[in-house]
Design goal:
The chain is an alpha/beta fold. It is built from 8 helices and 9 strands. The longest helix is centred in the N-terminal third of the chain and has 19 residues. The chain is globular, with a radius of gyration of 19 Å. One of its GO terms (molecular function) is DNA binding.
Length: about 210
């Protein structure tokens, strides 16, 4: 990866789309693709794709395009990393259960959901899609025991900040936050916020102005 260039956030957000495209291309037996083919599949203009890739050096050749296997290996090594990331879902209610039933390996085979946590005694001790649901009292022990790196937070807003602090103290390095509040955590802990209400409002806005 070219460390001399600062990679824009917009480029970083497109990288998972590129990874999924190359992974699907490999599954389909495709050996090489052009920026035009990537553009048509992802609805991203070719110039943007070439600029995004330029941040990481020479990934393709003019007149040849991009080697699918090489690019897939690149994304796995330099963007995803070679280590498996263990993930916990905090809150196994409606949204948490839906996430537990989602096949994450379809988009990232370096992510392993190893535990879920919920205070509802009716589901503690049960399994959702082969993932055991633990009581929050066991959080710190399970984070340490399973080397959990990432937490997906799907709790009510009023308890999310306190849980985020517990997660950080337990050793979590990243949080995917589905709650409607902005979490206040230590520097060095990355929080990615997904507010479904904001995303829906943005969708309605774009629909209105098409």
């Amino acid at each position: 990866m070219n460390s001399k260039k600062k990679i824009p956030n917009a480029t970083m957000k497109r990288l998972p789309l590129y990874y999924r495209f190359f992974k699907n291309s490999e599954k389909s037996g495709v050996d090489r693709v052009s920026s035009r083919e990537i553009s048509e599949a992802l609805d991203i203009d070719s110039a943007t794709i070439r600029r995004d890739f330029s941040y990481f050096g020479e990934l393709g050749r003019k007149g040849y395009g991009y080697n699918v296997k090489s690019l897939l290996n690149f994304f796995m090594e330099h963007i995803q990393g070679n280590e498996v990331k263990n993930v916990a879902i905090i809150g196994a209610g409606n949204l948490g259960s839906a996430l537990l039933n989602y096949k994450f390996s379809n988009i990232n085979d370096r992510m392993n959901v190893v535990a879920a946590f919920d205070s509802n005694d009716e589901i503690v001790g049960t399994s959702i899609n082969d993932t055991l649901v633990y009581h929050p009292d066991e959080l710190e022990d399970m984070v340490s025991r399973h080397n959990i790196d990432v937490a997906i937070l799907t709790l009510p807003a009023e308890v999310s900040q306190a849980m985020a602090e517990r997660l950080v103290d337990a050793g979590i390095k990243g949080i995917l936050n589905f709650t409607p509040i902005r979490l206040d955590v230590n520097d060095g802990i990355y929080v990615h916020n997904i507010d479904l209400s904001v995303e829906l409002q943005a969708l309605f806005f774009y629909m209105k102005h098409i």
